[in-house]
Amino acid sequence: MQPVIRRLAETTINRIAAGEVIERPAAAVKELVENALDAGARRIEVLLAGGGIARIEIIDDGCGITRDDLALALERHATSKLADETLISIPTLGFRGEALPSIGAVARLTLISRPAGQDCAYRVHVAGGAVGETVPAPGIAGTRAIVEDLFYATPARRKFLRTPRAEAEAAERAVWRLALAAPHVAFRLVSDERVMFDLPAQDELARVAALFGRETATALLPLEAEREGVTLRGLVGPASLSRATMGLQSFVVNGRPVIDPLLRLSLRLAYRDVVPAGRHAVAALRLTVPDEAVDVNVHPAKTELRFADANGVRSLVIGAIGRALARPVSLDSAPVAMPAQSFRTAPGASAYPGTRARGFAEAELALAAQPSARAFPPPPAAAGPAPHDHPLGAPLGQILDTYILAVAPDGALVLVDQHAAHERLTEERLRGEFLAGRIAAQPLLVPVVVDFPPGEAARLLSEAATLARLGLEIEAFGPGAILVRSLPAALKNPDAAGLLRDLAEEFAESEAPLALEARLDAALARLACHRSIRAGRRLQREEMDALLREMEATPRAATCSHGRPTFLRLTRAELEKMFGRRGF
Ligand code: ADP
Ligand code: MG
Predict the structure, then answer these.
(1) Residue among 570, 558, 575, 579 at smallest CA distance from 241
(2) Which residues partner with 145 through β-bridges?
């Protein structure tokens, strides 16, 4: 039979559009809160019931919708926001005129609104696409949008919803992101009668503190940078604050909260030396981009962007975070509080003094025994407290040939993981050489040949130019073999085969589109690993002292390349607590 083409009914079109715009309650919440922000609201209240599937109510004190416009607002592609239809300059969060008709097509939607000058409020109701009369109703200035029975009109879509708990979490996240984007607007969020937050209009820092948690917020490092008209402001966590999820990451571009792959990747790259795989940095970043340099009309939900200069944006983010993190070790640097916690909660350790405890107590016992611990007689200089410009203190001895024990100027005990610390220092030194031009290469008198599976050899050889910049010169040597002509001089005498295998693995692991600089960075970290004081090597006092002083002078020395702390501190207050000299 010959197919017949016919136009879809408006309701059907809206239901199809709703599939893109309103895929779950969180999306409806986001669209309605964006409308309230666009209306210039100073205060927004969000009430959710049953994860937003049963009911969503948004109350704002914005400009309102006039009686005559109420029904129009429910029509597809009807918007008050696109003055200029070139889609270049879009100062509002909405502009597509799709949210209200989409919600109205799949749920029961009631709008009650009263602009400031109008003598009473009016109400309009739409259910499954059928729009009712506009009638007078009680209501104060502003707009109330009530969504009930989401997807009742599209049961197929309803089946894809997760549990009310999961939907509630997603909806709460959406409000959380918008509240971070608009700190000057008061926000109240209630979910199943629980007040999730109730925030006054506040400045950005206070808003981040309220939504990230006060303790986290106090550890954040501010940053600010500019590049070709794009500005970046924000707060980022030190590596030690990393988390198992991306839950404490917020990106705002031109006032719009976004979940943008490029920004996420840039953040990950900025931390790749200090936050281990599978962990995620904490960050609240705000970008301001000239209108013509960003396209927000890429995705119906408007959460993804297209930047005209993606590389520029990435460099800006990576560079600014790198500088924020690159602060030399100081007494109040990040690992201070966290590792002390791990002392107390070490497996088998007891919080009570006097009881036989494993963990730190065991290390103390070992101090007296040979050869796992060696204490030096105090040199004249260390008799008093260490000088204040030496926050890591004076070395007292070495434990298990692995840890350096030192006393800080404020009396805190410091334990340094010699391998982790040295690895970080080597990496920073290599990076310095690299940034200054080229890493010094040491030609090999007798070139080394290393065998690989053919594919891997080819991959390494394709990076030969990159590796040459790192002082590592290689060339093909028959199928599956690589000839090594020179190695980075700073590595002294590394095992060439191990080094190359390690690099091959690194290149295989990294995602395809990694930029050259990111690959170089990764390679630097691997190189550093190959020349570090092994745990288990005995150190002279001078070596320990040199290591501590170099750590103090080196940016980012507080964590090793894998994100683990390089040193732990146990303060006097913590010691007193552990010995019961102070209340818990
Ligand atoms: P868009 O936001 O893309 O314009 P919507 O479908 O979300 O499309 O909204 C349609 C129109 O309804 C808006 O352009 C705006 O004029 C009006 N509107 C919606 N919500 C509100 C609100 N809370 N306060 C004032 N006006 C609103
Ligand atoms: Mg809208």
Answers:
(1) 558
(2) 58, 111
224 to 288, 512, 536: CA distances (angstroms): 11, 30, 42
The enclosing H or E element of 484 equals strand 481-488
Sequence-distant (6+) residues with CB within 8 A of 14 are 76, 101, 102, 104, 105, 129
Residues contacting residue 517 through CB under 8 Å, at least 6 positions apart: none
Distance CA 379, CA 220 (A): 39
Least confident of 180-189, 194-203, 429-438, 479-488: 429-438
Q: How confident is the model at residue 341 (pLDDT cuts 50, 70, 90)?
A: very low
- Nearest 5°: CA angle at 443, between 439 and 444? 135
Instruction: Give CA 334 to chain center in angstroms.
Output: 17
Q: Which residues line ligand 1 (CB under 6 A)?
A: 31, 35-36, 39, 60, 62-65, 73, 78-81, 94-100, 143
Coil/strand/helix, residue 508: helix
Q: How far is ligand 2, taken at its centre, from the CA of residue 100, in Å?
A: 7
H runs (alpha helix) in 213-280: 214-219, 261-270
Which helix (H) or strand (E) is 276 found in, with range?
none
**Which of 22, 32, 33, 35 most suits a substitution to test ligand 1, by most atoms within 8 Å of the C-beta?**
35
Residue 183 CA to residue 207 CA, distance in Å, equals: 6
* Closest of 85, 158, 78, 81 to residue 126, by C-alpha: 78
pLDDT at 507 over 80: no
Residue bearing the CA closest to ligand 1, atom 1: 97
Residues 317, 320, 326: CA angle, nearest 5 degrees: 135
Q: Tens digits of per-residue pLDDT, 399-438?
A: 888 899 999 888 889 999 888 888 888 877 777 777 776 7
Nearest bound ligand to the CA of residue 111:
1
Helix and strand numbers, DSSP H then E, in the chain: 19, 24
pTM exceeds 0.70, yes or no: no
Calculate how far, in angstroms, residue 159's C-alpha sits from the geometric centre of ligand 2: 25
Residue nearest to ligand 1 atom 2, measured at CA? 94
Cα gap 256→418, rounded to integer Å: 45
Ligand 1 mean position, distance from CA 72 (Å): 10
193 neighbors 48 (Cβ within 8 angstroms): no
Residues 6+ apart with CB under 8 A from 561: 273, 274, 423, 424, 427, 525, 528, 529
Q: For residue 199, with 0-12 CB atoms within 10 Å meaning exposed, 13-18 middle and 19 or more buried, which class applies? A: middle
DSSP 52-97: GTSEEEEEE-S----HHHHHHHTSTT--S--SSTTSS---SS--SS
Quick: pLDDT tens for 165-177. Answer: 889 999 999 999 9
